Structures are given as C-alpha cells and as structure tokens.
Amino acid sequence: MTIKAKRIIRYIYLVALGVFLFIFFIVFFPPGCMPGVHWSKNLFLSRFDCSRADICTMKPHTCLKESGGSYMPRGKDFDENAREVRSMEVCYNKDGFRDYDHPIKPQVPDTIRIEFIGSSQTYGLGLHPQDSIPQLVQTLLNQRAREMGLPYHFETFNLCLPCIYMPSMFRIYLDFGQKYNPDLVIYEYCDPGRLHYLDIEGRIRAVRHSRFLSYLMKSYWGRILVNRIFMMEHIVLNIISDVRGPSSRVIALFRKTAGIAASHGTRFAIFEYWDISKHLDRLVDGYPTWIFSSGVNRRQFLAMSYDNGNHPNESGSLYYAFTIANHILSSQDPVFRPVLKQGIEKR
Known about the structure:
Among the domains are: 1-30; 111-195 and 245-345, SGNH hydrolase (Rossmann fold, 3-Layer(aba) Sandwich). Helix content is 44%, strand content 15%. It has 13 helices and 13 strands. It has helices at 3-28, 78-81, 120-123, 133-148, 166-175, 200-208, 211-216, 220-244, 248-263, 280-283, 298-303, 314-330, 338-345, and strands at 48-49, 57-58, 63-67, 70-71, 83-84, 87-91, 111-117, 153-158, 184-188, 267-272, 289-293, 305-306, 311-312. The strands form five sheets. The chain has a five-stranded parallel β-sheet. Helix 5 (166-175) runs parallel beside helix 9. The chain is elongated. The N and C termini lie far apart (85 Å).
C-alpha cells in the first residue's frame, strides 16, 4: 500500500471518528445552556412575540404555565421528557414582560424609577412574582424610605427575559426601557462569556429566518438536532468572548445605549451574582457605570439556588434584593450618589 493510500485511509478514519463523536454527543448529552428549561416547551418559540420591536418578548397580556427548572433523562428532548419543577402560572404585561403595566409617567410624586434588565435569574424563574428580585427591591426600598423619613417612592420594573445576554439587554432598554425615563437601570451580568448574540433572542431569529431550521423544528429529532447545533455554537462563542472580551459590535451597541440613557439623565449599574467578571472594564470604558456584586462566591450562589444551581430560590432572591437595596440607600459611590437627587429634579 502506498503512502498516499495510507494517508487517505487515515483521513477516512478521522472523519468517521468525528461523525461518531458528533452523533454520540447529539444523542446522549442534553442541551447545555440555554440551560434546559429555556428551550423546552414551557418557554418555546411560539410563546414569543417578535412583531413589535427589535427584541422578542413574551406575548403581551397573556398568562401561561411556566416551569421553573427541569430534570431531563439523557438522550431525550426537553419538549416531551423534561420533568418540571416549580410549575406555576406567569402573566405578562402590555410590553411582554413579567410585570404589571406601568404608566409612561409616574403617578406618585417624588418617584424614583429603577429598571432591572437581565436573564432568568433576575426574571424570577421558578418564583412567584412577589419573590422576584425587582419586586422585593421595590418593597424593601419603600419600606426603608418610610423608616428613614425619606420623601421618595420607589418604582421598579422587571424587564428581564429567560436566557438573554447583554446585547439583548441593551436592545430591551432601547425598545422598551427608555420610554419610562428611569433614573437607574441595573443590568444583570453573571457569566464572562455571555457577550455574544446567540441567546434565546438569537435562536428565535435564526429559526424564523432559516427554512432549513424551520423545517427541522417540525419533527422530534429535528428539534433535538437544532438544540445541539445551537448549543455547540453557543459553547464556541462563549469561549471566544471569554478569551477576547466583547466584540466591537457589542461595544458599539453599549455606547449607543449609554449615550441615549445619558441624554435622559439615566444612570447605569451592572450587578454580578458573584465575583466581578473580566472584560466588563473594556465594555464600559469611559462611561460612568457602577459595577457591584453580591459578595457571594459561586459555591454560596449554588447553596441559595434550585434547579442544580441555575436559579436563585426564595432565600437567595431575598438575599440579593437586600444587597441591592443596601447599595441603593447607603452607597457613597460617585456614580450612584446623584441618582436620588437627580431623579427628583428631572420630574
């Protein structure tokens, strides 16, 4: 056998091995992020409305059964085999967010408006609305304002969606958040790799604009294949953004968002559930952004979570709400300190 023939056979073996590993990965490993529940039937594509703006939200003025977490047998699709935990009915407002309808202008004098924009951790997946971080922060701030004799009324917004990353968060502010003229926007950031566009929003648009993916989504095994394709793309993009940091596209979107917010007198904050991540300094370079964390480490975060450590439970949500409320009413940070005064003046 010639050297050329041996080389060809070696290539055939390598290709065959690659195909085998790909099939093995698809069949026996469950989809990773988004993680599990976000791609299951309880948050499936048909529940999102993409007709009104640049960001897909949930269908406005609907109430749907939602599962907060899933445990899935290996090799099975989430649509039919996920075992649900913390299942409950969730209602969405006129904008398609898990919140009540807010008027464009505050109805109470001396109102300070705070918008939370994040993913399922801050959204409150698996929690009743009153146990979500935005609602708890509103309750705590108004209670403390009364106790301290402060003339403020705090109004919080839950502009969070399951499994979105920072690019989608910026678009939520541009499309929905800015019209309410908030005094402070708090963005959630909990993973140094999630500075790319392949979140649930990216998945929805990819399927909607691809005949091939739309065709695959019609069948059981097609959905599994699409799940794995997106998962592998997500892993690669996470690694790239974790190593290289935010792309120029993401930085440009942040600067556009920050510029519009500044013109409205809105301040920015980025909240980390555990240690401050790298690459944020590059993203916010030159902008007065307040970055702070809860002070817990990853192990402590897991201890205050359910669903294998993916989402805060009631005690975890309350802890993070106390942390945020403490920062807001006691912080001497030069970025946040003017928010209370400025918020009243601009009314």
